[in-house]
Backbone:
């Protein structure tokens, strides 16, 4: 028998390779503590070798160390971290605002209610009706218009606000057309535009203060209902984007599953998904272009910036997240991967695979005759399995891969139950 | 303790809290810097923030509104900002407002704002503590180029520094013990004020923290050497020669012929992998790495040139985003390194640096005097570098019986160096001469034999390994070994030593440097159980440092330099 020549950090007593001088010394101290002189000689020898190998003067060693260390100095990408301390003033803020705004809201609501009545009750004597609803201020002591301070006389007469009853001159009066008033009371029928000329007969005389409050309310309402085109386009864009996001996530899952040799998904699945993503990317591209080229009113550089920004962000998204997806493996690649994977599985799960085979064998051999009978009045389990198979096909076509996975699991379970049942029957038959 | 991540987390929370929809981010000058240090515009656009506005810009008030946008407001809680915000809310330009203040705000101010919100547009009012600039994961700055007036604080700068550090502590959830440099009244004052805020806002500062962190406050004047030296690692070198301002480098200043898209380049380790990898690399190594990057780029470009089949085309389109990114980075770094190397050659910076390094770490008066005189006679050496050499000499040999500071200043005068520069030699001695220092900056026994080496790098640039170690290195070494003397670095109030701290925040009043940043980074790498964070009122290079010195000594008379017989107009 030819003795092989071993090399490495061998223990001189048991000839074990310990791979490093440190290990060797430790090994020796632990197991061969009685052989102290050998230990000493190992240590000496190692010390000498070290000196010989590292025959550099200290200075060079220092520089060398510096260099090696500098190699390591770079900045890693910062890992996400939890946000630090936070203090919220929102509740306090809202409490203050509520106190202040309650008053204003109540006032506005009062005005709206009055307006509603004024509109509803017009009939015989309008002036009387109006005064019944709103107490008009007694004008006897008022000599000047409270808002513009001009004195009243024959040419500058006193007028009353129909909503709060206060006094003002004609030039300080504002007129609310019935049409506008209607929209304020019942905002559902908004017919914006069509501002008819405010003539006294078709409109209500009101003061600046009341008009301000009503206008404010109306503006808020209109803004709530109006949704400019850009918002609609943007919402559409975001919906498509979130769909794409889902597809991308699924694609990664499918891709990883395929390249690791699993058979849960078909190659076709990956290809279909990729086509869907590409189609959606195109939609995103078109939508963002549409947003960017939307007409802008003059003097609104902000809107222009916004539109360009959305376009830019979308194209970066497409470039960085959608176009960088790995291509699905080719048929040959996939075959290779699967073959390799199969080998591995066989090696790893050798015993269980064998057992499975045995099971199958007993089932098929034991039950060939009765199986034909069964086929006539289909076993409910088989029927169920066929249905599930059908579902899987459908789900696959609809690219609902999560369902495919769960259905396939169902199918597997059904198969197992079916086999068990068959086995039980076989035993009974025996 | 990563300041970049801390700020990013807050900004992310901001964009997420406001629910989906198009957003505009309304900021002031300082908060714009805070955000731009960690997020690029394209990155923040992915979070639906499509517009960035400045509340303090002249035409903002009269700009049109877009009511369908949500407005994220991120402001410092200053009086002007609160007034501007009230005006904004009275006539809101946007549909909804989410307000975030970068620091602690008074209740009275909240009340004033609430009273102006008549249309109920505000949805959130919160404090998100990011009142500092996150420069690198372990480095932050308050962004104050000057903070001293004479030997004491400019009061607004003190206030701003307190706010900066308080917000830093809150953003990292730390409530540290505080130590400060004993001989510096500025350090003592800052330490006291921070302690005061921590006590006053004790509920904010109560969070479960592991171990007891430490805040160590130092004074720049204890080490005036480090900010004067020429630097040879990438980030420090770029800052010294080209100046980095909020991650941006203006190349137009140094080279008017530079192309338009490169007139200002962004150097951000978060967005530029090449920069992140090379940020602490030596000059020569960067040269090699740039060459590699270029080869890689050329290989890619070549493969793109022969697009013959459909599949070639497809590959091209697929690789295009990375290709574009790569090409942008290549041109950027090639240009930057090109500028550096032309300056190094033009101004004999290797020779200058060699003498600088010798003076900083050796004690040899006559030979140093000779080397300096030799360089002063070289008219290729910049006046600025000449003055810095004399400064280093003066700092080291200030108390040497035969020193020739006056003589050297006269040589400078003969070179027609401007008086502001020469006068700054005296200013620096008044600012940070031996009277102002408590540490042994020129420890003679420690001065090892100099081992500067110049290696020929591949791409023709010399590699330089410098000998100088900032004073901060020794201070940290003593600190992690538990040997930092309490008499020199006392605790604030009745606090006292309770074991060795793992999390250490060092703050340098008067500004820190990128050389010290590298020191801290290497410390963190070699002592993984410690976590050190460095900050300062500013990140100085020699130019900005000398501006601060000049400002601080502007109205003071000569006290410590009367023995130097030079006259200035």
Residues:
């Amino acid at each position: 028998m030819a003795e092989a020549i071993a090399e490495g950090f061998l223990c001189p007593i048991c000839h074990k390779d310990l791979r490093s001088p440190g290990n060797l010394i430790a090994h020796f101290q632990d197991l061969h503590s009685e052989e102290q002189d050998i230990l000493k000689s190992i240590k000496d020898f190692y010390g000498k070798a070290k000196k010989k190998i590292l025959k550099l003067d200290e200075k060079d060693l220092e520089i060398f160390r510096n260099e090696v260390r500098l190699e390591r100095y770079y900045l890693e990408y910062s890992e996400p971290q939890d946000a630090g301390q936070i203090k919220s003033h929102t509740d306090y803020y809202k409490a203050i605002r509520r106190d202040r705004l309650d008053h204003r809201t109540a006032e506005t609501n009062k005005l709206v209610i009055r307006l509603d009545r004024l509109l509803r009750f017009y009939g015989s004597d309008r002036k009387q009706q109006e005064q019944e609803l709103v107490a008009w201020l007694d004008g006897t002591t008022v000599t000047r218009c409270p808002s513009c301070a001009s004195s009243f006389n024959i040419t500058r007469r006193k007028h009353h606000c129909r909503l709060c009853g206060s006094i003002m001159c004609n030039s300080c009066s504002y007129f609310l057309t019935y049409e506008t008033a209607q929209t304020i009371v019942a905002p559902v029928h908004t017919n914006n535009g069509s501002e008819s000329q405010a003539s006294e007969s078709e409109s209500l005389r009101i003061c600046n203060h009341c008009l301000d409050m009503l206008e404010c309310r109306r503006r808020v309402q209109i803004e709530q209902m109006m949704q400019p085109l850009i918002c609609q386009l943007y919402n559409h864009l975001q919906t498509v984007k979130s769909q794409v996001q889902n597809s991308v996530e699924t694609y990664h899952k499918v891709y990883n599953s395929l390249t690791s040799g699993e058979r849960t998904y078909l190659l076709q699945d990956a290809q279909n998904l990729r086509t869907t993503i590409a189609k959606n990317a195109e939609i995103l591209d078109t939508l963002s272009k549409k947003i960017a080229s939307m007409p802008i009113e003059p003097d609104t550089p902000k809107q222009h910036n916004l539109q360009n920004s959305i376009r830019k962000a979308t194209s970066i998204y497409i470039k960085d997240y959608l176009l960088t997806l790995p291509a699905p493996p080719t048929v040959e690649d996939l075959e290779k991967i699967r073959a390799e994977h199969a080998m591995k599985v066989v090696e790893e799960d050798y015993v269980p695979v064998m057992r499975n085979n045995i099971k199958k064998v007993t089932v098929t051999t034991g039950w060939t005759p009765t199986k034909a009978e069964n086929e006539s009045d289909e076993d409910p389990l088989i029927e169920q399995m066929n249905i599930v198979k059908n579902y899987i096909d459908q789900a696959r076509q609809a690219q609902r891969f999560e369902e495919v996975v769960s259905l396939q699991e169902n199918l597997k379970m059904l198969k197992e139950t079916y086999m068990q049942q068959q086995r039980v029957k076989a035993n009974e038959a025996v | 303790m990563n300041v970049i991540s801390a700020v990013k987390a807050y900004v992310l929370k901001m964009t997420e809290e406001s629910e989906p929809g198009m957003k505009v981010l309304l900021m002031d000058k300082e908060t714009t810097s805070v955000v731009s240090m960690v997020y690029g515009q394209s990155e923040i656009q992915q979070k639906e923030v499509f517009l960035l506005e400045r509340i303090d810009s002249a035409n903002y008030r009269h700009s049109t509104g877009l009511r369908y946008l949500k407005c994220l407001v991120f402001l410092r809680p200053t009086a002007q900002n609160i007034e501007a915000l009230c005006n904004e809310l009275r006539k809101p330009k946007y549909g909804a407002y989410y307000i975030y203040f970068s620091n602690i705000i008074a209740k009275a101010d909240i009340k004033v704002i609430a009273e102006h919100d008549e249309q109920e547009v505000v949805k959130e009012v919160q404090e998100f503590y990011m009142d500092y600039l996150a420069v690198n994961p372990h480095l932050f700055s308050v962004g104050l180029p000057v903070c001293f007036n004479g030997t004491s604080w400019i009061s607004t700068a003190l206030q701003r520094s307190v706010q900066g550090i308080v917000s830093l502590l809150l953003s990292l959830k730390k409530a540290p013990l505080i130590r400060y440099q004993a001989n510096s009244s500025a350090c003592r004052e800052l330490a006291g004020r921070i302690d005061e805020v921590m006590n006053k806002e004790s509920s904010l500062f109560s969070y479960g923290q592991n171990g007891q962190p430490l805040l160590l406050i130092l004074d720049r004047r204890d080490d005036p050497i480090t900010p004067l030296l020429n630097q040879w690692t990438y980030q420090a070198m770029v800052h010294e020669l080209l100046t980095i301002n909020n991650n941006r480098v203006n190349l137009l200043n140094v080279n008017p012929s530079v192309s338009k898209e490169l007139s200002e380049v962004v150097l951000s380790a978060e967005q530029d992998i090449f920069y992140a990898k090379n940020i602490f690399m030596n000059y020569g190594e960067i040269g090699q790495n740039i060459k590699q990057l270029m080869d890689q780029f050329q290989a890619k470009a070549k493969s793109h040139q022969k697009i013959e089949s459909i599949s070639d085309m497809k590959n091209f389109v697929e690789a295009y985003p990375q290709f574009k990114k790569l090409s942008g980075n290549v041109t950027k770094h090639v240009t930057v390194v090109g500028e550096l190397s032309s300056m190094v050659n033009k101004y004999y910076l290797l020779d200058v640096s060699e003498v600088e390094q010798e003076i900083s770490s050796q004690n040899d008066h006559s030979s140093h005097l000779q080397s300096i005189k030799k360089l002063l006679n070289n008219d290729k050496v910049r006046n600025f570098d000449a003055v810095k050499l004399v400064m280093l000499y003066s700092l080291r040999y200030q108390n040497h019986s035969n020193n020739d500071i006056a003589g050297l200043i006269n040589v400078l005068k003969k070179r027609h160096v401007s008086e502001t520069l020469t006068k700054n030699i005296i200013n620096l001695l008044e600012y940070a001469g031996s009277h102002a220092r408590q540490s042994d900056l020129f420890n003679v026994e420690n001065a090892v034999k100099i081992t500067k080496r110049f290696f020929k790098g591949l791409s023709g640039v010399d590699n330089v390994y410098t000998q100088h170690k900032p004073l901060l290195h020794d201070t940290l070494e003593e600190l992690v070994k538990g040997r930092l003397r309490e008499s020199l670095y006392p605790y604030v109030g009745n606090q006292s030593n309770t074991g060795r701290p793992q999390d250490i925040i060092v703050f340098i009043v008067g500004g820190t440097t990128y050389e010290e940043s590298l020191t801290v980074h290497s410390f963190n790498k070699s002592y993984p159980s410690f976590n050190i964070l460095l900050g300062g009122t500013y990140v100085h290079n020699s130019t900005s440092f000398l501006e601060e010195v000049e400002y601080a000594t502007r109205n003071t008379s000569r006290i410590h330099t009367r023995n130097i017989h030079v006259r200035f107009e």
